[in-house]
Write a structure and sequence with these properties.
A hairpin with a 2-residue loop joins strand 7 and strand 8. The chain contains 12 helices and 10 strands. It is an alpha+beta fold. Bound molecules: the ligand Nc1nc2c(c(=O)[nH]1)N[C@H]1C(S)=C(S)[C@@H](COP(=O)(O)O)O[C@H]1N2 and molybdenum atom (MO). Ligand MTE binds next to loops.
């Protein structure tokens, strides 16, 4: 054990020796732009933007109805972090398209602002001495979680959009827990810094406090280089970067003609012509669907209420056919415009086993062997919605193999994963 006196003496020696050469020296960071105004502007933009991305991210998780059944839950060890979960509604039918499009597009668009904010506070990371007091040490630790958490959450999200699930480990738990760590540090940071940021922005961009003053917050250079761009110019440049990203990503969520503008779209910009010419998440070949699985031997087994019925495709075709105009919206942020689906209402299928009026939750299983999205449990409100179909056709044509031939689920307002393709079994009753 070191006596406190010796510890203090050592700390004094470090302080009086001054920082080592390099980024910890006050004169090292010389941009005249750095200061509380610039940091405050980027900070306030991020406050609004990240709040929106976080809330839409929470909604994205809720939309899976994870509490309904273990197989719906990509983060089963969430514990109390799922405190806010609720039954995802089926209206408006474009709900998930909006929330998830916002989540992913805004996440991408905020990247330049995030980088600019980091750049604006870089001198503070090299503050000398590195630890001055217990309180300050705690604050620095929270900054580590803030910066690390932001980097991790944004990186996992963007990799998932761009690489289409080609991911080390499962994307969901990484992004989910990363986001909670990040947001906890973010809330602390906002609590400490919000009033300062608001004051700095109110003071105006021409007000630059003297280096070393309290308001300068270690950001203002004592020896600024001559400016090459104004502070307003720097903000405009970052804004232009964000707008450029918006222009090359938003198209994949807007869909239709705009898809051509989505230069960053992960699935290509042209899904091909014809009635089945809209985005495909996974092709039949890529998930190992064999021709025999969906050929003439294909059957649909419907179970529930103590009964079981086995149907051929022709029997399904002979049932009353209903139409629904619905989009597909994926967790990755892409979505299609409304497609004209037709097929058998899930309530009509429930009627085959005597559950037509108030069907319970429904376990949907694909012929696909394994894979996270080969089965799902749908909530009662999804099953009961008259727009929910076991679709056999789209835009006037038979489903293509890649879009789920011979039958797939299509639901209003739901995330893409609920629209199971190549369905072979529908099990009404207690979710499992
Ligand atoms: N059997 C099965 N169904 C599935 C999937 C899958 O991988 N296997 N992917 C789901 C996901 S994540 C999405 S976004 C939609 C995409 O449907 P589409 O490929 O017809 O556009 O299908 C869903 N249905
Ligand atoms: Mo998806």
């Amino acid at each position: 054990m070191w006596p406190a006196g010796r510890l203090r003496a050592a700390a004094d020696r470090v302080r009086s020796a001054g920082p080592p050469p390099g980024p910890a020296r006050p004169g090292f960071w010389r941009s005249p732009l750095r200061g509380p105004w610039l940091t405050g502007v980027f900070g306030l933009v991020l406050l609004v933007g990240i709040t929106l991305v976080f809330v839409t991210g929470l909604l994205s998780y809720a939309s899976y109805n994870p509490d309904l059944a273990p197989r719906n839950d990509p983060t089963p060890d969430k514990g109390w972090l799922g405190f806010y979960l609720f039954t995802w509604p089926t209206s408006p039918y474009w709900l998930y398209r909006l929330t998830q499009g916002t989540h992913t597009v805004l996440g991408v668009v905020l990247v330049p602002v995030l980088l600019a904010k980091l750049w604006s506070v870089i001198p503070r990371f090299f503050a000398w001495p590195p630890v001055r007091s217990a309180g300050q040490a705690l604050e620095r630790l929270s900054l580590l979680l803030l910066v690390g958490g932001a980097g991790f959450t944004f990186a996992t999200g963007i990799l998932n959009i761009q690489l289409d699930y080609v991911f080390p480990g499962s994307f969901y738990p990484l992004h989910f827990y990363g986001a909670w760590v990040f947001i906890a540090a973010f809330v602390l940071h906002v609590a400490f810094r919000l009033s300062r940021a608001v004051r700095a922005v109110r003071a105006g961009r021409d007000f630059q406090p003297a280096s070393g003053s309290d308001e300068a917050a270690g950001l203002v250079s004592p020896d600024p280089a001559p400016p090459t761009i104004s502070r307003r110019g720097a903000v405009a440049m970052v804004g232009a970067g964000s707008l450029a990203l918006l222009a090359v990503t938003a198209g994949q969520s807007i869909g239709g003609w705009w898809r051509r503008t989505a230069l960053l779209a992960p699935h290509g910009r042209d899904p091909g012509p014809g009635p089945n010419g809209f985005q495909i998440n996974k092709t039949a070949a890529s998930v190992g669907i064999r021709p025999g699985d969906i050929g003439p031997a294909w059957r649909l087994t419907v179970r529930g209420g103590g009964r079981q019925v086995v149907l051929t495709l022709d029997m399904l075709r002979a049932m009353p056919q209903s139409g629904s105009a619905l989009p597909i919206a994926c967790v990755e942020g892409w979505s299609t415009s409304d497609q004209q689906w037709s097929g058998v209402r899930l309530t009509d299928i429930a009627g085959l086993v005597g559950l037509g009026t108030r069907p319970p939750p429904l376990l949907v299983e694909s012929v696909q062997r394994g894979g996270a999205f080969s089965s799902v449990v749908l909530a009662a409100n999804q099953v009961r919605d008259r727009r929910s179909l076991l679709a056999l056709r789209v835009n006037g044509a038979e489903l293509s193999h890649d879009h789920g031939y011979p039958a797939r689920v299509i639901l209003p307002a739901a995330p893409g994963v609920h629209n199971t393709k190549w369905v072979t079994r529908l099990d009404f009753g207690e979710p499992s």
